[in-house]
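Changelog note: in this version the structure field was regenerated for every chain. One regenerated record is shown below for reference.
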Amino acid sequence: MRSIMASTSETAMTSRAPDPAAPAPIFVAAPAGPNGAGKSTFYHSHLKPSGLLLVNADVIARELALGDAAATRVTAAQRGSAAPIP
C-alpha cells in the first residue's frame, strides 16, 4: 500500500494539470502467497470494487479443464509474460 500512497501524494503535490493526450496509468496489484492465504478473498473484498480484473490460474484451469502446467502457461500468456515452465 505504500506505493499507492506515495503515488497519490506525488500527484497531489504536482501543480500542473494532467495531459489529456497521455496514456492512462497502468496499475497492477499482485497479491502473492500460498494456497489458502486469502488472495482471492482480498481481491473480492478490496480490489474488485475498484474495477480491477483478476487473472487466476485456478479459475482458468477449472473453466478450461486444464492441468496445472497448462493453466500456468495460459495465465502467463494473459498476463503478457513469458514465464518459463519447469
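Spot check on this record: The chain has four helices and no strands. Residues 43-86 form one domain.
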